[in-house]
Specification:
Helix content: 25-40%
Low-confidence stretches: 1-28, 38-43, 58-96
Mean pLDDT: 76
Distance between the termini: 102 Å
Number of helices: 8
Number of strands: 3
Order of helices and strands: HHEEEHHHHHH
Strand content: under 5%
Radius of gyration: 32 Å
Shape: globular
Structural class: mainly alpha
């Protein structure tokens, strides 16, 4: 026989269990997440990045849910980087700084024109963000030297990273120990120039005149010596390759240029 009290209890509504006073809610949440993982072991479970997906639904741990989303962190870091970059640009000396997102005028059109001092415009930004400047992601820091004549100039240690040298004249210039990574030197005149120890990482010398140039100890990794848009090969006759830093694949790519002389082919190891 069922007792009278049992019959009364059966009619009462059920109440979900609550954590006891003093219990840790986060511990309870973790326990539930652990139980959810255990119960999903027989379900379809896979890992996508840092998230567990069970039966097409994300399984999120309570600790992970309480942490800030990665996109928020990325946005904060992006804002800090942008602010730092804006400060760097504002600190750069020069007669004509462009608005954010706008490319400055060519150096030849700036007050004073193509001076040695003009090569220092945005130099700190270009040195630190050569990839962004070289790809146009930071147009406000681009240094356009097209049409400038620096023939015979002493440019030791100058920073020309990400600069546009196309159409400029550096014939006989002394540019040693400098930085010119990711610069564009398509059709540029470097004939007889001394370029020892300068970093020319990923520079395009397509169609450039490099006859008699000295690349001793220069960094030429991923540099290109091919043809320009008009089909003109870079002129490499008499180039000093001895001591230049480039990989075997870089050397073989340079060997494809028919203007490399026999001495250059021997130094580069052309096959």
């Amino acid at each position: 026989r069922r007792c009278r009290h049992c019959a009364m209890l059966a009619t009462l509504p059920r109440v979900s269990a609550r954590p006891r006073v003093g219990s840790n809610p986060s511990t309870t949440s973790r326990a539930r997440a652990t139980a959810a993982r255990a119960s999903s072991s027989s379900s379809s479970r896979r890992r996508v990045g840092d998230v567990d997906v069970v039966d097409g639904r994300r399984l999120v741990d309570s600790d992970a849910a309480s942490s800030p989303p990665s996109r928020v962190v990325s946005s904060v870091l992006g804002a800090v980087a942008s602010a730092s970059l804006a400060l760097a640009l504002s600190a750069c000396p020069g007669p004509a700084l462009a608005e954010a997102g706008q490319k400055p005028p060519p150096v030849r059109d700036m007050p004073g024109g193509c001076t040695i001092e003009a090569l220092d415009l945005f130099k700190d930004t270009r040195a630190k963000f050569s990839l962004e400047v070289g790809t146009g992601a930071l147009p406000e820091a681009i240094l356009d030297l097209g049409g400038c004549d620096y023939s015979g100039a002493d440019l030791d240690g100058k920073v020309l990273s990400g600069a546009i040298m196309s159409g400029a004249n550096f014939e006989g210039a002394i540019f040693t120990g400098g930085e010119a990574s990711r610069a564009k030197a398509v059709g540029t005149n470097f004939r007889g120039s001394v370029l020892r120890g300068t970093n020319f990482y990923e520079v395009s010398f397509a169609g450039a005149d490099l006859r008699g140039a000295d690349f001793d100890n220069a960094i030429l990794t991923n540099a290109r010596f091919g043809r320009d848009g008009g089909g003109n090969w870079a002129q490499l006759d008499g180039v000093n390759w001895e001591g230049a830093l480039l990989s075997s694949s870089d050397a073989q790519r340079a060997c494809e240029n028919p203007t490399v002389d026999d001495y250059g082919r021997a130094i580069l190891g052309c096959r």
